[in-house]
Write a structure and sequence with these properties.
Elements (H helix, E strand, L loop, with lengths): L5 H9 L4 H9 L6 H11 L6 E5 L4 E6 L2 E6 L4 E4 L9 E5 L2 H4 L14 E7 L6 E8 L12 H8 L14 H8 L2
Antiparallel strand pairs: 1-2, 2-3, 3-4, 5-6, 6-7
The structure holds zinc ion (ZN).
The site of zinc ion (ZN) has 7 residues, from loops.
Length: about 180
Amino acid sequence: MADFLKADIEKLMDGVLPWPAVQDMLKSPKDPNRFDKYVEIVQGRVDWKERILLPLTPALFIVAKDGERIVKCRCGHEFGDYRVNWKLASLIHVRDDEASIAEIYKGRELPDPGWVQIREYVCPGCGTQLEVEAVPRGCPPDFEFLPDLDTFYRDWLGRPLPDACEYADKTLDAIRDWSR
Ligand SMILES: [Zn+2]
């Protein structure tokens, strides 16, 4: 079973691992503690103390905080309950006319602004562009990843989290609260 060095995994994450070593890693069975090594690396790269339960993107993490599981940016900005689409709590720049979309797409590549919106989701804390989506007008923000953390920790890692919580998409509940 492969057991790659943490230093090599860091190089892989940073895009500086030499290609032959990348190929070797790709072809090898994944080392069983790769997840833990990865989380250890990203935990060591943030300035805050909350425990990372699962990385969502290079900038966003689900963390345990005061008995809750929330989404947190590497800068420290918190987006709230991880079961609510974090995009609702971000800054959203929408490109929905020809001039703004033409800054990205040229000529015949330009999508029809009558149909397509390009939404850029930005962290209010650090200004990092966290995600971009091209969707039909009126389409709700895509909730890209709602992991079942309790099943993952219990059945895949073999160490259940101490505070099981309901696994459900709470996004519509949050939107409902806006109108109260
Ligand atoms: Zn941030």
